[in-house]
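User: Hi! I'm working on a homework problem where we have to compare a predicted structure to a textbook description. Could you give me the structure for the chain below?
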Amino acid sequence: MSAHRPSIERIDDELDLVARLLPVGKPCQVIELGCGAAALARALVAQYLHCTVTALEVDQVQMAINLTAPLDRLSFIEAGAQSIPFDDGTFDCALMLKSLHHVPMPLMGQALREVARVLRPAGRLYVSEPTYGGAFNDIVRLFNDEGVVRAAAQGALDAALIEQPTLWQQVDELRFTMPARYSGFDEFERKHMRPSYADHALDDTKIAQVRASFEPHVGADGAWFDRLHHVRVFVRTDAAQAV
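Assistant: Happy to help. Predicted C-alpha cells:
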C-alpha cells in the first residue's frame, strides 16, 4: 500500500532521504540511471561501506569527466535506462535522480520495465523528479521549459502502476524542498544554461532575459532558492520474475 505524506519536507542532503527510503545500510547493489556528475553516487559509497554503485550515463562528455575520478565500489557505464546492459535480477535498488524526464518520452515505459527486469524481487526504485513550480523553475523555464517532459515522467510512473501491476507497487511518495545556492549569475549560467548534454539555443537577448529574472534573488551571500522535488518509491513484485 502506498504511503502518502501531503506536507512538504525540507531536505538539505538528498542522500539522507535515500538512506531513509532504501536499504543502503546493509549490503546492497545499487544502479543509478542517469548519474550526471555522480555526486550522490560518490557520497553513497563513501558513507555506506557495504554499498556498491553502478552508475549509467549517456552524456559522453560527462562520462569522460566521471572516469577521471575513480572510486572503490563505484563503476561507470555508458548506457541509457531504456536499454540496461545487465542480467535480470542483478541489483537490489535503483536510483533515478532527476533523470526520468530526460528519457525520450516514447521510451519512458520501456525504461521502467528495464529497471524492473534488473532488480531482484522486492528491489526498490527511487525516482526523484523536479516539480514544475516555484521561483527557480520560473527562471529555468525561460530557456528550458520542461513542463511537458516532467508531466510525461509522472504519467509514465502512473501508467506503470496500472499497466504493469505484475512489475510494480508504489510504497512511498513525498515532496520536499532542497536549498540551492549560486554565487551569482555566472555560476547559474554555467551549470544550467550550458550543460554538455543539451543546446538551449542561447543568444544575447535570451541570456539578458534570464539574467534579469535571476538578479533580484542575489543577496550578500549569493542567490538562494528552494528547489521543489517529488519522490516516488516503487517495489518490484515477485511476479516480475515471470516477465
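For your comparison, note the following. The chain has a mean pLDDT of 94. Residues 92 and 123 are 5 Å apart (CA to CA). Good luck with the assignment!
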